[in-house]
Amino acid sequence: MTMAGTARLRHGTDFLADGGEMGKLIRAMDWSRSPLGPPEHWPQSLRTTISLVLASNFPLCFVWGPERVQIYNDGYWPICGAKHPHSLGQDYKECWFSAWPVIGPGFERCIANGETSFFTDTGMFLDRHGYLEETFFTFSFSPIRDETGEIAGVFHPVTETTHLVLAKRRLNTVRRLAGQTAHAKTVAEALQLATQAMADNPLDLPFAMLYRVGAAGEDAQLAGVTGLEHDCPACPEHLALKHGETGEWPLGQALLSRAPQHVSDLERRFGRLACGPYPEPPQEALVHPIDIAGQPVAFLVAGVSSRRPLDEDYRGFFDMFAAAVTTAVSNAWAVEAETRRAEALAEIDRAKTAFFANVSHEFRTPLTLMLSPIEDCLGTAELPTQVRENLLVAQRNSLRLLKLVNSLLDFSRIEAGRMQASFELTDLAALTAELASVFRAAVERGGLRLEVDCPPLGQPVYVDRDMWEKVVLNLLSNAFKHTFAGEIRVRLRRAGDCAELTVQDTGTGIAAAAVARLFERFYRVPGARSRTHEGTGIGLALVQELVKLHRGEIRVASEAGVGTTFTVSVPLGQAHLPADLVRTAVTGAATSLGAMPFVEEALRWLPEDAAAAEIAANGSAVAAAVPAAASAGERERIVLADDNADMRDYVRRLLAGQYEVEAVADGEAALAAIRRQRPSLLLTDVMMPRLDGFGLLVAIRRDPALRSLPVVVLSARAGEEARIEGLTRGADDYLVKPFSARELLARVQTHLSLATVRRQYAAELERANKELEAFSYSVSHDLRAPLRSIDGFSQALLEDCGDMLPELGRGHLRRVRAAAQRMAELIDDLLQLSRVSMADLRRESVDLSALGRGVIADLQRREPDRRVEIRIQDRLPVEADCRLMKIVLENLLGNAWKFTSKQHGARIELGVRILSAGPEYFVRDNGAGFDMAYVGKLFRPFQRLHLEADFAGTGIGLATVQRIIARHGGRVRAEGMVDQGATLCFTLGREPGVEP
User: Fold this and answer.
1) Among 125, 270, 722, 989, which is disulfide-ready with 234 (CB 3.0 to 4.6 Å)?
2) pLDDT 10s digits, 943-983
């Protein structure tokens, strides 16, 4: 540029000095050939407008003069796309001719009369990239007046909002899809509803198809289509799932890659597609696989709009849409699967109901044939006592079995809809009072009070007497089963149009979480305290169904530890009952014969003395007698645990001829009997109240004093899995009920013999071990004297004659002294190991905190310059041998002190943490640590995980700790990491309360 040109720019065209890239472009143009002429001749109004536009970062354009010359800034030119820079100075209408139907009217009004227009998110089609593109803009037209006051141009700020409008539209499509498919019950329905959602947005989905994968996984069938005709070349009914397809959609490639496939040659593959919404057919499509848990279920084939580029936002929409289809299909798939499971369960339930009905029916015949001969035999006066007793046991348990069978039969009939009631006018107060009173003896024998409050209702009530009997007896039986103190109250009142029965107890109560499940078949409250664990779990479910047959309802209110109240309401009158099931005759009080099986079963839940006395008083049984045998001192003792009184009596009679047998009703009583006097063998049932058989096993195996006790489990659970579970839990043997007397006696004799052999072997091993320890102690003692002489004379030689010896000789003497001292240290450790093994264990109250502080004080006196952070937890009481626990802490804390000797910021901790199994004490440091791969060697004598040059020691200290802890019935373990410290943990048997 010449000096004159520069001056002209500074003075005549200085309004073009700024403006970024557009300023440069405007300055470089030859405006003399344009309708505006040279810039130096432009009017001040034009100069001011262009200066304002170029100085702004907002997208601005203005149009000047009758020729509609457009000028714009840096913010505007990206809107022009490929038209830029040719669009600069171009006729505005010519440049944006494709959008003129939308923008033209507002522009013309502004030019003609100065009207200002504002448009928000207005859609238009722009030809700026060689094709008509769907776009959206927010813009305005405002008049620009020249020096004469006439309209000389149009000020045109504009913002492209295409991405916002499209994002909103596409998001709404995905939302509609999710909403429409939310309640789809089948995959086919989900795909059909998804197709409808696709049809609602032809602008982004000009065509779309959903193909469902066939059962064999080799092809896919069209499940829904929008935008294309069925059976056109691009929309076949079936597609093969093979790799490298030609002439069809690449489902196989999508299946193999598990990723969307871009198809860009639609016209070559399928010809020109007859597809809206624009005259130009789509040229691109995407194929998305729809997977559920990695399995192909369907494919989405979606066309790309011919008026939108397949940019990142557009691909993101297809990804979201495919994900929404996947979710819809997955949910429907889950519903289908759940429906199939429900149908299968319903079929199983129907089969189970039919099975119970058939089996229960078939059981009644052999039970009848058992009960009748037993009853005949019991009528014979000449029966020996033992025979009569056995027959009475058989009769009681046959009646109990009959009761269970009847309950199952009743329930199966109700489930199958075949239970027919016979409603009779009944004096419900008298019937209820008599049924409840039958339980009085059992309740009082159990140490409870029974209150029966059933005044006359003033009118008879229509009930099925047998069903009402089952309702009352089941509720009473349930109350007695779970009540150990207090009372059971039976109350009958009229409540409005209903007769209302309440059975209230002061028993163990039920947690709120379990109340809602009480009436489920076979449901039993986990961990509930009861007199027995026997039962089918259908009593309350049966009661509910029987009440429903009376068109009544049953409610329950319970609080754990307080008690439970069941309330049964049955409507008065007969209008609510089927007319053909109503009997008009009034029936008197019941005989309550059906109550006896309930009562006798309840009596068997009582402690044996109370139960036996009551049963004998009723003439139903006599107390079990133990045959005379040799004195208890000559026989091995067996503890038997079973909550079934008849089973206890039976097994006790089998064993009493050879062994001393103590029979108890639950695991807690068994554990107390075992700890009071250790038996030779434990026989235990699995299902028992308070503490079950497996819990009893755990308690025994954790107690060092009882750990070797032989245990034989007696269980009704048959099968290999049950047997393996019992043996895994620690049982020595597993015997399935029913078993023969000979098998039980043989198993007991075998395990007692094995226990005797083990005891003899253990005694011999202990004796040999003590002899070996005594020998080690003696040898160690004998070695100490010559070692002291070697050390003493070596020291004297160094002190008295060291000057006469060469340095090599003095070095040899120093090595002799070091070796003698190390040998003495090793012997001391061995002596300590022998002493802790041989010394008597004396348990007393020991404060580990005080012991630990004393050990640390000794270590600090030896090395006063060491700086170690010590953390010892207060109040660590244990029941242990004080002397031995001091040795434990000397070794553990001494090790921690030693292995942190090279550590800056050394830290040692002594404390306790409370685990589910009890307190675990620990000593932790942040020193050298160790590799956990070698943790198995840590507690073996003479094993070292560090070099002697790095950390001195004999390798016996932790072996001594392990021996002491084992003698206390505890265990010791270690955790560590190289250069990050170590933690040594130990437990002790029979711990007192610990304050952490």
Assistant:
1) 270
2) 555 545 444 554 577 888 888 888 888 888 999 888 889 99
